[in-house]
Amino acid sequence: MTKTTTPVEPTPLASTTPAGRAGISLYRCQMLAYNLVAVAGRLLRGQPHDAPGEHLDDYLRLGWLRWDAEGARLRLTPEGAKVCSSAA
Predict the structure, then answer these.
(1) What's the DSSP call for residue 86?
(2) CA distances, 65 to each of 29, 36, 83 (Å)
(3) Is 72 inside a domain boundary?
(4) Residues 6+ apart with CB under 8 A from 55
(5) Phi/psi at 66 (nearest 5 deg)?
């Protein structure tokens, strides 16, 4: 009696990374990580409007920024802080 197994399709690498799940290319993700330090500084100074809007959308999708409980301010997440410390 032989047991046959059904081959399992490999999961594409892009869908196993936060960037891939967010639909963001690796190149763009690296560029965003590089610029996150400056964006975090703008957030601390209360100047998020100085960052390009499409960047903010990507930071939110990646989970590096989030809206505070009141939805009034953007905050750096713990994951975003890790990205900042590795990019600096």
Answers:
(1) H
(2) 14, 10, 11
(3) yes
(4) 32, 35, 39
(5) -150, 160
One-letter amino acid identity for 1? M
* pTM confidence score: 0.70
Q: Is-contact 52 79, C-beta < 8 A?
A: no
Task: Judge whether 21 lies within some domain.
Answer: no
Range of the domain at 66: 26-79
The count of structural domains within the chain is 1
Chain-centre distance of CA 87, in angstroms? 13
1 in any annotated domain: no
Would 34 be classed as within a structural domain? yes
* Per-residue pLDDT in tens (0 to 9) along the chain, 88 residues: 556 655 554 444 445 566 666 778 888 888 999 889 888 888 888 776 777 777 888 999 999 999 888 777 888 999 999 998 887 6
* CA neighbor of 39 nearest in space, from 76, 82, 77, 86: 76
